[in-house]
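Anyone up for a design puzzle?
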């Protein structure tokens, strides 16, 4: 059983070797690595070619920069494995990751396998469990959309034939929340889900969060709104609440970012108010303090102080 690993590469020259070396060090040997150089202006593309010249299991695609979603989609189209997992260029894999995942896949024949990971911050590892409340695809997807489970393709092994069957894909132009979109396009269908209670992946939160701060731009916020629109068009009313929560968080983040001004800010405030108020009305579990915090975050101080 071959496993395809897809890695989108952009400005990764300082940490790409760590990622690729962790894949080469796998105890399981039947794999292929698709490195998609997304028009990186640094030496990342050269590093990719260097590894491909040494190991026939490593394939490199050089493309014009189009964003992470287009890079991952191209990787999907070129991979040939029975199962697929993604690996971010700034993270790394446990040496037994593919071995344990392949064994679990053979035992369960599941379409989607969730597994645990370590969140690494300044060298300190924190175990992040990804065990779903129920192994039912719609409930798992709700937990992913709602943020109770990580919406990351690197913590999920997926069957390639199932991806092809349902035409699951990364929508082009959406580079914030693209993993949510891909997983939604796959898991809204009748797919089987399994869970492997082993931490097999190392997520470098230090590098990723620094990158996230740099990525807070007007374009990234607009990409986030496009992600919400995509999910609204793809999923039924059962997902209204988790999508609404994403929308609220995005609008609050956009307001606080300082990237919008004038009529744009007014429109964001006008759109955020009813969403926040509706969420408060529907959410019976919110405490008085949490309601005040939420209202204050979007500028409704005059209401918050009377609650």
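Challenge accepted. My sequence:
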């Amino acid at each position: 059983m071959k496993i395809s690993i897809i890695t989108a590469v952009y400005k990764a020259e300082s940490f790409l070797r760590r990622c690729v070396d962790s894949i080469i060090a796998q105890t399981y040997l039947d794999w292929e690595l698709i490195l998609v150089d997304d028009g990186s202006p640094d030496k990342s593309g050269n590093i990719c070619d260097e590894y491909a010249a040494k190991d026939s299991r490593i394939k490199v695609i050089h493309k014009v920069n189009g964003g992470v979603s287009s890079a991952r989609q191209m990787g999907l189209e070129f991979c040939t494995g029975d199962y697929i997992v993604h690996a971010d260029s700034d993270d790394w894999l446990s040496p037994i990751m593919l071995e344990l995942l392949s064994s679990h896949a053979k035992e369960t024949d599941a379409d989607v396998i969730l597994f645990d990971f370590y969140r690494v911050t300044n060298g300190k590892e924190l175990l992040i469990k990804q065990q779903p409340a129920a192994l039912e695809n719609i409930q798992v997807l709700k937990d992913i959309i709602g943020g109770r489970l990580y919406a990351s393709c690197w913590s999920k092994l997926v069957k390639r034939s199932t991806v092809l069957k349902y035409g699951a894909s990364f929508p082009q132009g959406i580079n914030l929340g693209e993993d949510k979109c891909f997983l939604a396009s796959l898991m809204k269908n009748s797919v089987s889900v399994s869970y492997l209670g082993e931490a097999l992946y190392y997520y470098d939160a230090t590098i990723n969060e620094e990158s996230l701060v740099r990525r807070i731009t007007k374009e990234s916020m607009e990409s986030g709104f496009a992600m919400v629109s995509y999910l609204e068009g793809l999923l039924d009313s059962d997902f209204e609440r988790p999508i609404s929560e994403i929308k609220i968080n995005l609008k609050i983040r956009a307001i606080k970012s300082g990237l919008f001004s004038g009529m744009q800010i007014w429109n964001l405030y006008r759109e955020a108010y009813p969403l926040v108020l509706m969420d408060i009305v529907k959410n019976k579990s919110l405490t008085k303090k949490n309601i005040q915090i939420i209202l204050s975050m979007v500028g409704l101080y005059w209401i918050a102080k009377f609650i």
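A detail worth pointing out: The two ends are 59 Å apart (CA to CA).
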